[in-house]
Specification:
Elements lengths: L20 E4 L4 E4 L7 E6 L14 H15 L3 E6 L6 H10 L3 H18 L15 H13 L3 E4 L2 E4 L35 E6 L14 E3 L1 H13 L3 E7 L3 H16 L4 E7 L2 E3 L8 H6 L6 H6 L11 H8 L1 H9 L7 E3 L1 H25 L23 H18 L4 H22 L10 H19 L15 H23 L3 H13 L2 E6 L2 E6 L2
Parallel strand pairs: 3-4, 3-9, 9-10, 11-12
Antiparallel strand pairs: 1-2, 5-6, 6-7, 7-8, 13-14
Subcellular location: Cytoplasm
Family: Belongs to the class-I aminoacyl-tRNA synthetase family.
InterPro entries: Cys-tRNA-ligase, Cys-tRNA-synt_Ia_DALR, Cys-tRNA/MSH_ligase, Rossmann-like_a/b/a_fold, tRNA-synt_1_cat_dom, tRNAsynth_Ia_anticodon-bd
Length: 537
């Protein structure tokens, strides 16, 4: 298979591409991102085993790689994103017996739940969601190829991959032979080596089964992804993603199967996201905490506290209703994708407070200019979003911040640093409003208003790349609409009372209102065009 040299930075149609660097788990270094067949890019992300409702940990990978596809597309690449569904597995079979319903029914129900949750978190960039049961012929043909080449052997209806035949086995997870262990149980006695793993499992009484050259049975977990990725993306594709907990044995085994079957590398870049763990570690999202850990935590440290159903990680639909999908997406993107995400109430509250900062600016923009932030047109490509700053100090600063944002994203998709730049943009635009004295009566064609709208357009471009603020916010169930409206009316009343007290030089009452609100975590913001309020904690 022909490949593209790492020194090549342009597509076949002559378009210059940005210098993006990607951390490759296989090489343990950041490498220049040069797709095999630029501008086409193929990405495969390991999806869920659909035996129970989704939890928040299941959203980490999809949100990250949805964002990565958005970013690569914005940079001119043509991206195909595949996320598989494992709908045949020991856990599904056990759940089927527990509930007394067919395995296929459980898979359909839980797949629908998974997809509904993806939609709420704004994950809409997936091109294919193949199910293992729809690719049985591909899986069987893949196993036959491995067997015919001497990489696999059959024993009493089971088929195993012989890891000793692959000299590179263990390189991805950096494990020695004595650290490699395949399936145990009854299969262990039939294997030639403890590290060999199952490609096909012979049928047991009452289990779902498919016909095969080795008798009735079902595929092993690892072979499913190799067969489906080959069908949709080819023998070698650009990026394989997944959580760090999948590096071994799942991705190590996938890589061995595919490399040996096709005598070619399965993947050019292996990308692994950090895991989510429940904790009470204070605020989540501080730059020093997030980014310092991106390269230092070991696999054991990241997987030890992994959030899962056993640790109370269920009820995602309820969590979305209480927090909103946008808040959860923002919460996940505030952390560099290779870092551990500490999931706690403090982190969610901080994410909500941060979002309110954006929502207030959007309200202010519309009040002053009559233009909704959500109606601003976002450029589809990076080169289309460039603006001419001239000698305007505000736009010069916005251009610098836009460059800083792209520098962060070019450096291994650092969404945490990119989001920090967005806050700098907000401060720049709010300062421009205050210093230029823009009011709702300012002419729409005035230079100050046009500068503001131009800067807001840049912000619109950058948040769209992250999949944020695509539509006006919805009210979380935790704050009832009627209660929220009442709270807003009460704040308006208190602001009016304070204004009246100040006009009457009753500063004691004015200060008392401000101080009591401060104690409740509400800050009053006195500006030229009136007083507004925000939560300060």
């Amino acid at each position: 298979m022909s490949t593209v040299s790492d020194s090549q930075t342009s597509t076949s149609i002559g378009q210059t591409m940005p210098e993006i660097r990607v951390y490759n788990t296989l090489s343990k270094t950041k490498e220049p991102f040069v797709p095999l067949k630029a501008p086409q890019v193929g990405i495969y992300l390991c999806g869920p085993t659909v035996y129970a409702e989704s939890h928040i940990g299941h959203m980490v990978g999809p949100v990250i790689f949805d964002t990565i596809k958005r970013y690569l597309t914005h940079n001119g690449y043509e991206v195909t994103l595949v996320v598989n569904i494992t709908d045949v597995d020991d856990k599904l079979i056990a759940k089927s017996r527990e509930r007394g319903v067919p395995m296929s029914q459980i898979a359909i129900e839980m797949t629908a739940d998974y997809m509904a949750n993806l939609k709420e978190l704004g994950v809409n960039q997936i091109d294919y969601m193949p199910r293992a049961t729809d690719h049985m012929s591909d899986i069987i043909q893949f196993i036959q190829s491995l067997e015919s080449q001497g990489y696999a052997y059959a024993v009493e209806g089971d088929v195993f991959f012989e890891t000793s035949r692959d000299p590179s086995y263990g390189e991805l997870s950096n494990r020695s032979t004595d650290q490699q262990q395949g399936e145990g149980g009854g299969a262990a006695a039939r294997k030639r080596s403890p590290s060999d793993f199952a490609l096909w499992k012979s049928a047991k009484a009452g289990e779902p089964a498919w016909d095969s050259p080795w008798g009735k049975g079902r595929p092993g977990w690892h072979i499913e992804c190799s067969a489906m990725s080959h069908r949709l993306l080819g023998e070698t594709f650009d990026i394989h993603g997944g959580g760090l907990d999948l590096m071994f044995p799942h991705h190590e085994n996938e890589r061995a199967q595919s490399n040996c079957c096709h005598n070619a590398p399965m993947v050019k870049y292996w990308m692994h996201n950090g895991l989510m763990r429940a904790g009470s570690k204070g605020k989540v999202g501080g730059k020093s905490d997030r980014e310092a850990n991106a390269n230092t935590e070991t696999l054991a440290e990241q997987t030890e506290g992994k959030i899962s159903r056993s640790k109370g990680g269920g009820g995602l639909a309820d969590l979305i209703r209480n927090q909103t999908g946008e808040r959860l997406r923002f919460f996940l993107l505030r952390t560099h994708y290779r870092s551990t995400i500490v999931f706690n109430d403090e982190g969610l509250e901080e994410a909500g407070t941060s979002l309110e900062t954006f929502y207030r600016f959007f309200d202010r923009l519309e009040e002053l200019t009559g233009t909704s932030f959500y109606d601003l047109k976002a450029p589809r490509r990076r080169d289309e979003g460039k603006i001419e700053a001239g000698d305007n100090a505000v736009l010069i600063e916005i251009v610098k911040l836009r460059d800083k944002y792209f520098a962060a994203m070019d450096d291994d998709f650092n969404t945490g640093s990119a989001i920090s730049v967005l806050f700098d943009m907000l401060r720049t635009m709010n300062r421009h409003i205050d210093q230029s004295g823009i009011t709702k009566d300012s002419p729409a064609d005035s230079s100050d208003v046009q500068v503001l709208l131009t800067a807001a357009g840049v912000l619109r471009e950058l948040v769209s790349v992250l999949g944020l603020f695509e539509k006006p916010p919805v009210q979380a169930a935790g704050g009832d609409d009627a209660d929220s409206a009442l709270a807003g009316e009460l704040m308006t009343l208190l602001i009016d009372l304070r204004k009246s007290a100040r006009e009457n030089k009753d500063f004691a009452t004015s200060d008392a209102i401000r101080d009591r609100l401060t104690a409740l975590g509400i800050a009053l913001l006195d500006k030229k065009d009136g007083t507004s309020w925000e939560r300060s904690k």
